[in-house]
C-alpha cells in the first residue's frame, strides 16, 4: 500500500497522463492517486482476491483485476498505457512466512482486554506480526512478491514484471516505482538502487529519484535502525 505521505508526490509524476497501470495494486490506492492527478483511467492488478476490492472499483474507468501480472499485463495491446505507477514489496521481513503462535503480550493470550476483544490481537489471543502472511490470514499465492525475501527469486520476478509493463507502455510514457531500502543484519539493503538499474537495463531513462520521509515500522530486531523514508523513481520510455 502506498504511504499516505506519497500520494501527492506520486500524483505529480503522472499528471497529464490518460491511463495508468499498477501491476501490484493491492487494495487499489492507485485509483485515488489517479483521481488526485486528474488521470481519467486507471487499472490495477492484484493477485489476492481478498485485497483487490473489485466491488469498489468495477470499471471501466477505475478497474481492479484479480490475477497474476505476468499473465494479465501481456493481454493489453502494446502502447495501451502512458503511465505505470506501482509500489512493489520491498523484500524485507514483511515477507516472513512464519505463523505466530505465541500468546499476545497485551492480553496474555486470552483474546480479551477488559470487557471487549483485545485491540492488539483482535481477539485471537496470539502474538501479532506485521507481515503479508498475517495481514492476509493465509499463505500467499504463488508468485506473490510479498512472500519473497530479497534475493534472486525476488529480483527475477520483478525484472519479468517490469519487462511486461514496459511492453505495454507507450513511447514517451512514464514508469514510476515507489520503493524502500531496508535493514538486514544491521546493514542497509539497497533495494531502490536495484530497481533503478533494472529500469535502465530495460531501456528506460531515469528522470528523477525523489526521497520522501514516511512513517516507518519500529518493530523487530532492527527497529532502532530503520531507514528514514522511501524513494520515488521516475523513468521514461524513449520514443523509437
Keywords, please?
Rossmann fold; alpha/beta; single chain; about 25% strand; two-stranded antiparallel ribbon; globular; 11 strands; about 240 residues; 2 domains; about 25% helix; seven-stranded mixed β-sheet; 7 helices
Task: Characterise the protein shown here.
With 240 residues, this protein is of the alpha/beta class. The protein has 2 domains: 4-95 and 140-236, Rossmann fold; 97-130, no CATH class. Helices cover 24% and strands 25% of the residues. The protein contains 7 helices and 11 strands. The chain has helices at residues 7-14, 29-37, 49-52, 69-72, 132-136, 152-167, 191-201; strands at 19-22, 41-46, 62-66, 81-86, 112-113, 116-117, 169-179, 182-184, 187-189, 205-213, 229-236. A 7-stranded mixed sheet has the order 3-2-1-4-7-11-10, with helices on both faces. It has a two-stranded antiparallel ribbon with strand order 5-6. Helix 1 (7-14) crosses helix 2 (29-37). The chain is globular and about 65 Å long.
Structural class: alpha/beta
End-to-end Cα distance? 34 Å
Helix amount: 10-25%
- In CATH, what is the homologous superfamily of the largest domain? Vaccinia Virus protein VP39
Here the CATH topology of the largest domain equals Rossmann fold
- Per DSSP, the total helix count is 7
General shape: globular
User: What profile does the largest beta sheet have?
Assistant: 7 strands, mixed
Stretches where pLDDT is under 50 for at least 5 consecutive residues are: 92-97, 216-225
Order of helices and strands: HEHEHEHEEEHHEEEHEE
